Amino acid sequence: MDRLVTAAEQLSTKFETHSTMLKQANNITNDILDALEETAIMASWMSESFLAATTKSWWPFVVFPTASLVLGSYGLPPSILRNIGLLAFGEVVGFIVSSSDQLTTHLPHSQEIKANFTASSV
Question: Is the pTM of this model over 0.90?
Fold first, then answer.
């Protein structure tokens, strides 16, 4: 009888331990799923932001200064003035690219240019 009681206690203890470990695994899995959902939402938002060409976007302000700095300084000795100038140039180009849609709507004959462009691309 004592062996049966001892076996039942051990089984109960193992069951409680296993149950606790399953709850912890479930909590960890839920945390991972929450993180993945947030990551998917952010990735979707960034993809839409990167590929959005209809409104002002932030990507030209990052890509163009970086590209002008890397390409303009390649193989040359370091110069803080040149780097500042290249970054400023990249920001100006980024601003122009980001605002190109707004600029074309304010230019005269821009609607004709857009119509011709869309007609020729079809």
Answer: no
